Amino acid sequence: MTQWWFQTRIEILRNIRNRRFFFFSVLLPIGFYFLYVNLIGPNRVVGGVSWKSYYLISMATFSVVGAGLNGLSSRIAFERTQGWVRLMQTTPQPPINYVTAKIIANLLVNVTEVVILFLAAAIVEHVRMPLANWIMAGAWIAFGGLTFIVLGMLIGQLAGIDAAQIVASALYFLLSITGGLWFPVQMMGSFMSHLAQWTPTYHLARVSWSLVAGQAPSWDDFLVLAAYFVAFGLVALWATGRRRDTRSA
Amino acid sequence: MTAAIALNQVVKRFGAVTAVDHVSFEIEQGSIVALLGPNGAGKTTTISMMLGLSQPTSGSVLAFGQDPAKRLTRKHYGVMLQQVGLPGKVKVRELIDLFRSFYDHPLDAERLLAMAGLESEARKEAVKLSGGQQRRLQFALAMAGNPKLLFLDEPTTGMDVTSRRGFWDSLREFARDEQRTIVLTTHHLDEADAMADRILLMQHGRVIADGSVEDVKRQSGKRYVSFIAGASVTEEVLATLPLVDHVEWSGRHVRLTTTDPDTLLRAIIQMDLDVSHFEVSQGRLEDAFVSLTGSETWMEEAVAHDAMVVPDTH
């Protein structure tokens, strides 16, 4: 337990000290939020709720997806290719600690981002909803973001340092746009709105869009997201095992 | 007492390449062993199997009678690998505390910082240290668990002369406790010569020489006769001497390589050459290495190896 806590504490500290990471995953979504809420009109109704509530969920999801993809992909790629992971494997620490510490520290980033965005929206744009809805919608995004943490780890396992960063950023924007996080699917053409049905981003956000609209989330959102989570997880495990016995120079 | 390390008929293949070819040896507890060999000899692969990072294709590797792939076996290990990039945004002291948390009876953090000479860098970010300081930090991490068995793969790469001396001094202090075992590789053969009680020389995946530094030098069969040559002694004169394999001049200092120093000395005396300060030796470990492996590239490799590493500027 002590070992696990030391490892987790270091990962948390590294996240706090990483200002560039915080800029992109907190300030960028907040900036977008205020910009688009005011461009479109805060009280216009989209998806059964006011735009300022709808877009809050979009941007909170956008920020969590970014933290998962950008936070771990290049870090894991670095530690894997630069011998750090090998050194850790020579210690008596169970490998599971290394993985879970990174996941927990990243979930904490997700929670922080969601709280900051929700507070900003409540204070500046006067978004109002029952406390239970705030908590459920926020917790779902923060913890549902686990799927993207696993995707980030998967990229870090497969790609080198530079490639990991590029792939993660590309997927970040691609999945956010096609998943309807930048512009709501209701405003897209039929091809794009069909495409959105297949993205994990759309289904992560849709649960919370339903919650803030006072509707029950639909089961297919959970199913699709769970399917992505399992698929990313299995490929990540395969990629980890595949490298165990390769030759070193 | 069980051996710290026991390899029995170990083979490691990567596809068609046999990196390690039927290697067997035991390393007694309390000994300091240098594993040497030209690049590609199988040293790193052998160490990686001792560390439990890879499995032999056939044969067995045991550490204290246990499988090194088992987590509990590695409680006794301290490891310094080659070319490890430290993680960013972590301070020196935090990394030391992390590694201390892995072991049941860790050494004191202050003592580890002192051993690495990093007392005043404890609050610095680890990646901002110089190359040599990072290497010393990795030494502190290897020592964190107060290991019974220490693996050092090219430990002094990137260190300057002063750091290097300090490093071997703290290692000697650590090794004084007779229970502790050290397995090291190095490109600096003078370091292996000074530190190791035993040399394991590998080439083409096999152990080609095994014994004390003296044994290995003797095994090479080469002897060296050196002297200061007077003005009348020229290369032409020396060329007439019997049993000389090689002549090396540095200023007026001459070093002759031979297999039979007695006959050679007798010849020099009989010819009444103008020479003084005779010395007969078994040469440096480097000479034995070159003669045993038939490799002429030892020093070039060592220089190329060091040139890639950022020098220690602090």
How widely separated are the two ends of chain A? 35 Å
The SSE order of chain A reads: HHEEHHHHHHHHH
Helix content of chain B: 25-40%
Let me know the largest β-sheet of chain A: 2 strands, antiparallel
The strand count of chain B comes to 13
Please name the CATH architecture of the largest domain in chain B.
Answer: 3-Layer(aba) Sandwich
Number of domains of chain A: 1
- In what order do the strands lie side by side in the largest sheet of chain B? 5-6-7-3-8-9
Which pair of protein chains has the largest interface, and what are the residue counts? A-B, 29 and 38 residues
Strand content of chain A: under 5%
Number of H/I helices of chain B: 11
Distance between the termini of chain B: 43 Å
Task: Give an overview of the whole structure.
The complex is a heterodimer of chains A (249) and B (314). Chain A has one domain. The relative contact order of chain A is 0.14. In chain A, strand 1 and strand 2 form a beta hairpin. Chain A is mostly helical and 249 residues long. Chain A has a two-stranded antiparallel sheet. Chain A contains 11 helices and 2 strands; from the N terminus they run H-H-E-E-H-H-H-H-H-H-H-H-H. With 314 residues, chain B is an alpha/beta fold. Chain B folds into 2 domains: 211 residues, Rossmann fold (3-Layer(aba) Sandwich), CATH 3.40.50.300; 59 residues, 2-Layer Sandwich (Alpha-Beta Plaits). Helix content of chain B is 32%, strand content 27%. Chain B has 11 helices and 13 strands. A 6-stranded mixed beta sheet of chain B has the order 5-6-7-3-8-9, sandwiched between helices. In chain B, helix 2 runs parallel beside helix 4 and helix 3 runs antiparallel to helix 4. The radius of gyration of chain B is 23 Å and the shape is globular. At the A-B interface, helix 1, helix 3 and helix 4 of A face helix 1 and helix 2 of B.
